[in-house]
Amino acid sequence: MQNRYATLAAWVYELDKPVGRSFGDVEFYLERLQGVTGPVLEPAVGNGRLLVPLLEAGLDVKGFDASEEMLAYCRAACESRSLPAGLSRQTFEGFSYDERFEAMLVPLGSIQLITDYDAALGVLKRFHDHLAPGGRLILDLDAIDGFLDAPHSVRTWKAGEELLTLTADRIDTDYVAQTTTTSLRYEHWRVGKLVDSEIDLFALRWWGVAEFELALRAVGFTEVIACGDYQHGRKPQKGDGIITFEARRA
């Protein structure tokens, strides 16, 4: 399986990126959404790390995700705070809503899970078509540096008496397709004994800044701008870890 965020992967995500943890993006998105009164959509909502703070700020936000395990964490986070949970299980390629949104948010490079160029254009077109006229897409890309870092890593998390480990080994880098594929082995340990394990193939695509702007314009977006490391108004530059695009449906 590829990019599936099953039980252990979702648990690790919840431990590593709990609701409200910010990489500078929560504050950035809240600032960029000032004045928005209509519905907002977050595709690939995950565990609600961003969605919950937006709901707490009074925004009308819905979300979807392909992983039922991730959605379970998101629903629980909303329910524990008595927040409305307009959540559904859908995919990038097939999501559909009757309403149109004033804004759409795709943080932390989630769009890069779509590794086929034509499929990615199709998803961007679907984003465009689900925005109301004048609606904005705000979307993050991980810069290429993050794709070419250490090819092997091991990380650990503690949850009470439980220990979770993630061993990552890059198994392919395709410089023509602009993709990397990494083998992820998740393990759940208790008192020195292995309880469960999962293996996932995690594939991502990197984009050039000009390339992605052209892709946005190709599917109908206008007023495309980009900034680096959540500094609105500053063009991306060498060393930025995150590049954020903002584009509007005419």
Describe this structure in words.
The chain is built from six helices and eleven strands. The protein has two domains: 7-143 and 207-249, Vaccinia Virus protein VP39 (Rossmann fold, 3-Layer(aba) Sandwich), CATH 3.40.50; 145-205, Single Sheet (N-terminal domain of TfIIb), CATH 2.20.25. The N and C termini lie far apart (38 Å). 24% of the residues lie in helices and 37% in strands. β4, α5 and β5 form a beta-alpha-beta unit. The chain is globular. The chain is α/β, with parallel strands linked by helices. It has a seven-stranded mixed β-sheet, with helices on both faces. Strands 6-7-8-9 form a four-stranded antiparallel β-sheet, covered by helices on one side.
Total domain modules? 2
Name given to the CATH architecture of the largest domain:
3-Layer(aba) Sandwich
Instruction: Report the CATH superfamily of the largest domain.
Output: Vaccinia Virus protein VP39
Beta-strand percentage range: 35-45%
User: Which percent range fits the helix content?
Assistant: 10-25%
- Which fold name corresponds to the CATH topology of the largest domain? Rossmann fold
Could you name the ranges where pLDDT drops below 50 across 5 or more consecutive residues?
Answer: none
The main sheet orders its strands as: 3-2-1-4-5-11-10
Keywords: Methyltransferase, Transferase
Protein name: SAM-dependent methyltransferase
Pfam family, one: Methyltransf_25
GO molecular function, one term: methyltransferase activity
